[in-house]
Design goal:
By secondary structure, this protein is α+β, with helices and mostly antiparallel strands. The chain folds into three domains: about 1-65 and about 310-345, Hypothetical Oxidoreductase Yiak, Chain: A, domain 1, CATH 1.10.1530.10; about 65-175 and about 235-305, Malate/L-lactate/L-sulpholactate dehydrogenase, NADPH binding domain (Ribosomal Protein S8, Chain: A, domain 1); about 185-225, Wheat Germ Agglutinin (Isolectin 2), domain 1. The protein has helices spanning about 5-20, 25-40, 50-60, 85-105, 120-130, 185-195, 235-250, 280-295, 310-320, 325-340; strands spanning about 5, 70-75, 75-80, 105-115, 135-140, 165-170, 175-180, 205, 210-215, 225, 265-275, 320-325. It has a seven-stranded mixed beta sheet. Strands 9-8-10 form a three-stranded antiparallel beta sheet, with no helix packed on it. Strands 1-12 form a two-stranded antiparallel ribbon. The termini are close together.
Length: about 350
């Protein structure tokens, strides 16, 4: 399992994307985003995605030089058409717009559609926290080729993994970040299991006959992810996925026409200026007090706040490098070689 420094991995990833046709600034944004996901321990949203993006560019599904555009706007809201470029590029710009509007109006809400894979939503919540914002972000679809989740008690890939992220700033503990798929697992975690040659828990996915399986390769063979909360409270994960999907449907509604299924993918980014409610530093110290209170008197092990695992993993991997599965590195290397680039670990 190769171990690669964050900066080197960022440089390699940016070179690959640029060689595949991406604008240099886009390649840098996406590479930084992917490596930051690896640093946070979310390898499912990290550089494992690079060859997939290159294939999408080659197929014409991902437009590596297209410019996002604002198609509707008010003082506190905006709608962005991404023109099918990198989701990370669109979402970074949309988050910046939402933060600016929140500073001016108290609340900023930006929706985006016609986008590539947006990556780890927690990144945009972290941007908000760094700007003194509370945030909520919804991303997903209902129907279309990006849907990978069964409806509860149903069959078929009807719903996206439909993640949700929520973020708050603190004074001493850094960003408090919730970020998870509403399916029982992110699809990318299944990709990581394939590359590691590992089996999945038996309740994560079903095969093409809708039967539970622990074989991660079955997802790409027509299987599907199951809703979060199974076996006892799967209705909660399913219902949450539906609600996220409806937010996303709203985001991808450019007109009163019925959009085709493959276009029903969207993201909604909400930023709230905490200082409109009172001094930001007072709130941040209150968040610290809440965290310290919750951490008191653990029954066993340690009580962690949302985002603490990622913060610790980031510090560890910045110091020691990012360990990638051999299969992931082999695929990245082959992708680079196919574009005429030489890489080494």
């Amino acid at each position: 399992m190769p171990v690669i420094g964050a900066q080197k991995l960022t440089d390699i990833t940016a070179r690959i994307l640029a060689a595949a046709g991406a604008r240099d600034d886009y390649a840098a944004i996406v590479a930084e985003h992917l490596v930051n996901a690896n640093l946070a321990g979310h390898d499912s949203h990290g550089v494992i995605r690079t060859p997939h993006y290159v294939r999408s560019i080659e197929k014409g599904d991902l437009k590596p030089t297209a410019a996002p555009e604002i198609v509707a706007e008010t003082a506190s809201m905006a709608q962005v058409c991404g023109n099918w470029t990198f989701g990370q590029v669109i979402a970074k710009g949309a988050t910046e717009i939402a933060i600016d509007k929140a500073r001016a109006q108290g609340i900023g809400l930006v929706s985006m559609y016609h986008e590539g894979h947006t990556g780890r939503l927690g990144t945009y919540a972290e941007m908000g926290a760094a700007a003194g914002m509370a945030s909520m972000i919804w991303d997903g679809c209902i129907g279309g080729p990006r849907s990978v989740v069964l409806p509860l008690n149903g069959t078929g890939r009807k719903i996206g993994a439909n993640p949700i992220a929520i973020g708050f700033p603190s004074a001493a503990h850094g960003a408090v970040i919730l970020d998870f798929a509403t399916s029982i697992s992110a699809a990318g975690k299944v990709m990581v299991a394939v590359d590691k040659g590992e089996q999945l828990p038996g309740d994560w996915i079903v095969d093409a006959d809708w039967q539970p399986t622990s074989d991660p390769t079955q997802l790409a063979k027509g299987g599907a992810l199951r809703p979060m909360g199974l076996p006892y409270v799967g209705h909660k994960g399913y219902a949450l996925a539906m609600m996220v999907g409806l937010f996303s449907l709203m985001a991808s509604l450019p007109s009163d026409a019925q959009p085709p299924l493959e276009d029903r993918w969207g993201t909604v980014i909400l930023m709230i200026d905490i200082s409109r409610f009172g001094p930001l530093d007072v709130f941040q110290k209150q968040v610290d007090t809440v965290i310290d209170f919750v951490k008191e008197d653990p029954l066993e092990g340690e009580v962690l706040y949302p985002g603490e695992v990622e913060a610790r993993r980031r510090a560890e991997r910045l110091a020691n490098g990012i360990d990638l599965p051999a299969a992931t590195w082999a695929e990245i290397s082959a992708c680079a070689e196919g574009l005429g680039l030489a890489v080494d670990s």
